[in-house]
Amino acid sequence: MKRVLAAELTEIMDDLVLLKGWIHKMKSFGKFAFVFLRDKSGVIQLVIEDEKILSQLKLEMSVEVKGIPVKNGKAPGGIEVQVKEIEIIGKTYYDLLPFSINQKKVEATLETELDYRYISLRRPDRRAIFKIQAEIVEAFKGYFKEQGFHEIHTPKIIASGTEGGSEMFTVNYFDRRAFLAQSPQFYKQMMVGAGFESVFEIGHAYRAELHNTWRHLNEYVSLDIETAFIKDEYDLMEFEIGFLKHLFQHLEENCKKELEMYNVVLPKIKEIPKIPLFEAQKILLEKYDKKSPLGNIDAEGEILFSKYIQEEYNSDFVFLTKYPASKRPVYTMPDDQYEGATKSFDLIYKGLEITTGGQRIHDYEMLRDNMIKFGLKPEDFGFYLDSFKYGMPPHGGFAIGLERITMKLLGLDNIRESTLLPRDMNRITP
Amino acid sequence: MKRVLAAELTEIMDDLVLLKGWIHKMKSFGKFAFVFLRDKSGVIQLVIEDEKILSQLKLEMSVEVKGIPVKNGKAPGGIEVQVKEIEIIGKTYYDLLPFSINQKKVEATLETELDYRYISLRRPDRRAIFKIQAEIVEAFKGYFKEQGFHEIHTPKIIASGTEGGSEMFTVNYFDRRAFLAQSPQFYKQMMVGAGFESVFEIGHAYRAELHNTWRHLNEYVSLDIETAFIKDEYDLMEFEIGFLKHLFQHLEENCKKELEMYNVVLPKIKEIPKIPLFEAQKILLEKYDKKSPLGNIDAEGEILFSKYIQEEYNSDFVFLTKYPASKRPVYTMPDDQYEGATKSFDLIYKGLEITTGGQRIHDYEMLRDNMIKFGLKPEDFGFYLDSFKYGMPPHGGFAIGLERITMKLLGLDNIRESTLLPRDMNRITP
User: Which interval of the chain is the signal sequence (chains A, B) (predicted)?
Assistant: First the structure.
């Protein structure tokens, strides 16, 4: 007998069906009880009259049920299942659940929820976050594959800390010291030059940053692209706009139910304003009396500037462009319009940076000279710099933080809510 | 003017086109030259008459070309492009290439090829390996998504070495010691129990094994699944058979050209023989006088037994089943047919194990007791064991080594050939 999901029950009425899931809620009326069965698709009302079995049931047990679905206007969803057989297939061994799964709200702190991820995810609203997150990944992959990009998997154990230095985790790799990659930056550039031309990677990135905030993780999923033969950084921004349009279309089609749980109205994107950083700093100062750090805007500035963009352009998104060279990595292509600026950008979404990108220097001598200008030693860059000797074409790329875009899309307060099992300075379990 | 790929040129003849790529080969005839342009799609013959530009061209430069495609029966593919303009957009800075890209064979060792991955991948035959690998990932994702599986991303930095112990890399995680995950095993089980029911993950796995062989990597990509409400391990083997059928269909449709480069004839799978390990050991002894280690077969045994299966069943694949409990992890479900055996399996493909899988113990007390029986301390398993207290359903799963299946499919000799940037005891760059 083939298993049927709770959400499929509308279509197959009046025949014996097999259901499997967890005991979500129970309401006893003496001789019978309503028992709510939860599976990955939803919750269905069971009617059980066998008092002996009722006395054995406990919340969150997993069970197999055979029964006949019938219409009942009063049951949630208009259907209930009259149970003929029920078998306990996964026993429970707890006294009290750490917090309720079947109530509207979780009566626990985020930290407790995260300590019991295997309980909190039993809530459909918590699982919905990760359904949407999986579809963001799907849309990313789908869009860039359609655009001719090739998927790569690059090493996360790397030999040298040249890109990040102090903010990297060290690994004891046999008899030497290695690092966990902060990004696939060097490798994605290398693969572009090696003839794949356009690549993307969905993979972990590691930052040993010494602060715990609502928007930082020490291990996160980075959605990276890199592509050759671009004209400049504006080509890259067009790719990101194309992706975002595709993403919201894809979510509309695949996550209606989950988006409703979080009252998400998907943005309609036509254009995304592109504003040079120094202009944004000027606006922040003039309009909000907000001073910015040299060559950047801070977290508060991002929030204020997003507010301004929302009012002026009716857009959740804004590209900040033309970051100064001093605030960007050594491989960033200098701008030809503004002295000291680069062909780089960040994308701010509802007050949070979700992307950093830009055109890269592709000429060997220019890159080497820039390293020297930055006070770096070209010989420390080994294979990376060497790979530019063989006809590297103009190229660039960007990275989107998966947990960040998920968080902002759903209006969550803390990035840990959009991370299955977050890693931060204090948390390394479960 | 929109760029056209070399492989698209059949369709758009006699109009000016824009091509971009690398100088693959040059044949000079004095006043003109055939210059072969390579892009990600293939190689096309250019005819260049401008002697000044010809004198500047060097192999592997990247260039932009405007020209008119014309039919020429003698040109490879029947088309050549008469060049009107050519611009060097990516200069070269080498004296000699480390090995040839445009010859039939690479005159270098595998180690040299790997040292210069950014050069060797310029060869279409090398890139083809990774095109096929990307499509294996695509097929995996597509098949299991279609089957209702949910994609997850679980941490690779973990707190405890309980699953693997000595074969794990350690990470300096702020002020404590952490490990790199050997597999997503604990987390995928946890997510099944947390209500996703069926999950898959495409992610890195780390093994600090102290040997360098043709079939081992210290960092590899693991294609993992885990699913609830199974009857036994045979359900899992059916999932793997289903995936393999889908995979070969998918490759047939998407990688014809690349498969031809390696003379691959895709297997037609109907059934895969399932043979208990002790039977396989008996056959090896009787037929090949080959002794096996206790509770396993070794690398030579895998090759001999695959030969036997090929002869007897005409199959590239064989499931070895019923491994003894002493050779499997503590969470493996005991068998109910053979004393001391487990509901576990390996899949051997052309003489190499590419999958390990099995049903897991889902009952809290049974798992705890098994830990004690194995001489382990239940309290060391913290959240993992704890997660079994809340109605864990029957479940199981398996993992496929991405580089291994790629290697065997293409008939490669060394797993490093099917790894973009391999990590082993001696290699951590590029």
Answer: none
